[in-house]
Write a structure and sequence with these properties.
about 80 residues; mainly beta; five-stranded mixed sheet; Ubiquitin-like (UB roll); single chain; about 5% helix; 1 helix
Amino acid sequence: MKVTFKLFASLAEHLPPEAAGSNAVQIDIAPQATIADIIVPFNLPMKLVHLVLINGVYVAPEDRASRTLKEGDVLAIWPPIAGG
């Protein structure tokens, strides 16, 4: 099934080149794939996987290993961001 995978800030460099500018790719995942399963092939440093949203809804760290997605979902991930 297809979902949209978005990475922001410094994590965007882990996406394929065709994602430049949009920070998003369409990916095919298995129906039982969890958030943790989806991010492994992208080699994201887990300490930088900070804010995780599915369709704009926050997913707590303790739920990421078991939370699955549905066809058409959007998974978006941000690293910790400091600012002032």
